[in-house]
Amino acid sequence: MAEDKTLNALDAIENGAKLKKTVSEKSPAVKPAPTKTASEKSTSEKTASKKTLTTKDAPAKATATNTISAKEAKLAPTKTATKTAPSKEATAKQPSKKILFDSNEDRFTVANQAAEDPDVLHQLVENLSTDARRMRQFSAGALAVLADLHPDMLLPYCEQLIDALHRPEAQTRWEILEALISIIPLNPDVSFKAVAGAEASLYDEDSGTARLSAVRFLATYGAIDDKHSEEVWPLLDEAIQCYHGDPEFQEMLVAIIGFASGQLSQDVRKALLERVRFDAETGKGLLQRRTEQIVELCSASGTGKSK
Fold first, then answer.
1. Same domain flag for 306 and 233
2. 3-state secondary structure string across the chain
């Protein structure tokens, strides 16, 4: 009996060992995780730290970049607006200087202003083409005063002045004729274009002042040389005959004296002498004295040429 128990116990142990072996063969062996060294742990921690920082900082950097761009976008237009000069169109739209006249006496004040300010001078010339009659004639008066003081300042505006000789009101025309008289010595060729306008005023039936200014202009222009004298003599000859008894005739004779003192052609000198000889011989007072002076000038040997 004791031996049987011992055998049974050994069989049980043997069977248990076989069972363990069978289970061990069927189940895969689980390998233990490798143990990291100290250096590997340090490298791993640094890598993880960098990833964490990159992930956290990315939104912040993006936000900062966006914020700067927005500021730059807002500041850019302001800087551009500050540095950009006004365009020519904007400058052209600026209102011109307005010149006010209360009376003809203001023309002296305005003429002095025009002598110092080119904008005032330019506006005076522009006023010659305005629709307002009073503004045209007052501006023409200021230009006549300026021409007497500084004729060279009007040289760039000769074309506009000549055009103004065709305005309907007499005062604008006679004021511009007086201005052109001052310009003749500086630019005789341009003055030639004004002869037609002067001729129109010479036959103005309503204004003796316009007729007088026309004679003064033609006499000054004709005294330049023999060619100019022959050009204007037919007009002056007719004026002497037509306006002999007018109040302005004595002043016309003063202009003719200046004409006779100029560089006339011999033919013009002879014709002028014959025209005034009768008054010089039979006239009285101022008429006789002035016509005698003309005769003396025409009788003197001139430098002009005959045809």
1. yes
2. CHHHHHHHHHHHHHHHHHHHHHHHHHCCCCCCCCCCCHHHHHHHHHHHHHHHHHHHHHHHHHHHHHHHHHHHHHHHHHHHHHHCCCCHHHHHCCCCCCCCCCCCCHHHHHHHHHHHCHHHHHHHHHHCCCCCHHHHHHHHHHHHHHHHHCHHHHHHHHHHHHHHHHCCCHHHHHHHHHHHHHHCCCCHHHHHHHHHHHHHHHCCCCCHHHHHHHHHHHHHHHCCCHHHHHHHHHHHHHHHHHCCCCCCHHHHHHHHHHHHCCCCCHHHHHHHHHHHHHHHHHCCHHHHHHHHHHHHHHHCCCCCCCC
**Dist. CA 182–CA 202, nearest whole Å:** 18
Residue 129 domain-assigned? yes
Q: How many residues does the structure list for the chain?
A: 307
Q: What is the pTM of this model?
A: 0.67
Check whether residue 120 and residue 218 sit in a common domain.
yes
Q: Is residue 50 part of a domain?
A: no
Q: pLDDT for 217-234, tens place per residue?
A: 999 999 999 999 999 999
pLDDT digits over 124-134, tens only? Answer: 999 999 999 99
- List, for residues 246-271, the tens digit of each pLDDT value: 999 999 999 999 999 999 999 999 99
The structure tokens listed for 251 are 């002043």
Whether 218 is covered by a domain: the verdict is: yes
- What is the distance between the terminal CA atoms of the chain, rounded to a whole angstrom? 186
Query: How many whole angstroms separate alpha carbon 256 and alpha carbon 46?
Result: 115
Region 278-293 average pLDDT: 96
Is 143 within 8 Å of 175 (Cβ atoms)?
yes
